[in-house]
Amino acid sequence: MYAIIKISGRQYCVSPDEVVKVGKLHAEPGEDVMVNDVIMYADGDNKQIGTPLVPYRVRLEVLEHGRDKKLITRRFVRRGGMRRKRGHRQHYSMVRVKAIEQED
User: Fold this and answer.
1) Beta strands in 2-103 (DSSP E)
2) At residue 35, what are phi and psi to the nearest 5 degrees?
3) Residue 34: how many CB atoms within 10 A of its CB?
């Protein structure tokens, strides 16, 4: 059983008791978060594809917040004397999928 959900503009394929790194959520560690944006649900041969959503929801438990490794970007223009170096660290939340349940 798995579902494809949308969080913060990105899509994630999740299944129960799986730990997933997603974009930063505004919830404290230990809190439960409900995601209603379920794009697809599959359980064996039973597959439901939403137009745009299916009537399921996913319950997530926030485990921790953190920041990824630093990503360095460089820009160089030859014969122009221009060099630019920038760094970025993306915020993330580690979540555990507790349940995929059907809406009433």
Assistant:
1) 2-7, 10-14, 19-23, 32-35, 38-43, 46-49, 56-67, 71-77, 82-88, 91-102
2) -110, 120
3) 10
Instruction: Cite the DSSP H helix spans in the chain.
Output: none
Q: Rounded mean pLDDT of the chain?
A: 95
The whole domain housing 80 covers: 2-102
pTM of the entire predicted model: 0.84
**Other CB atoms within 10 Å distance of the CB of residue 25:** 19
Taking only the tens place, the pLDDT of each residue in 68-102 is: 999 999 999 999 899 999 999 999 999 999 999 99
Start-to-end C-alpha separation, the chain: 19
Any residues with CB less than 8 A from the CB of 46 and at least 6 apart, and which? none
d(CA 46, CA 64) in angstroms, rounded, equals: 33
* Measured distance CA(38)–CA(24) in Å, rounded: 18
